[in-house]
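[User]
Um, tokens okay?
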Amino acid sequence: MSERTQWQRVARRIRVPLGFIFAVVFLWLAEPTWTTMLASLILVVPGVWLRAYAAGYVRKNAELTRTGPYAHTRNPLYLGSMLIAFGFAAASASWIILIVLAVLFAVIYLPTIQSEEQYLREHFPGFDEYAQTVPRLLPRLTAAPTGDAAGRFSSDLYLHHREYNASMGAIAIYAALAARLLFLKQ
């Protein structure tokens, strides 16, 4: 078994609390316009959809999910999060937010993904074969062969993972940005 690095362990623990802190900084620094908010939907909506779709397939720590969006990318949940985050960076119209966000993803999420892959490699014998055919983050256009796995989207899994929170969070951020535009005109 391979040992996770100290930073991988730390990154996994702080990623969610750091996200909340970043949200506060985001709302403070954001300089949205109605146009940037509308344009951001090009990334945010697919990101929310991808997270919802992936949540309906994954059985965390129980099996190596290879079907649905997992036949295109090994990390559809993180890809969805990135689409959402960079969509909101576009909505903010702030280069500072974009740069800080890119650094945070590189410093927090890449080590987290590597740590999770180590776990999957240790617990699921087919992971290396899967990793050879399905890219880590940027999706392949056609689904990778899944062998005998015939997974289907499960609304029960979607609800179990509470992925509806991503939609509610996106709506709340748009509401906060709209309120900023309406009540805190610069």
About this structure: The chain has one domain: 15-183. The helical segments are 6-29, 34-55, 76-92, 95-123, 127-133, 155-160, 164-183. DSSP finds seven helices and no strands in the chain.
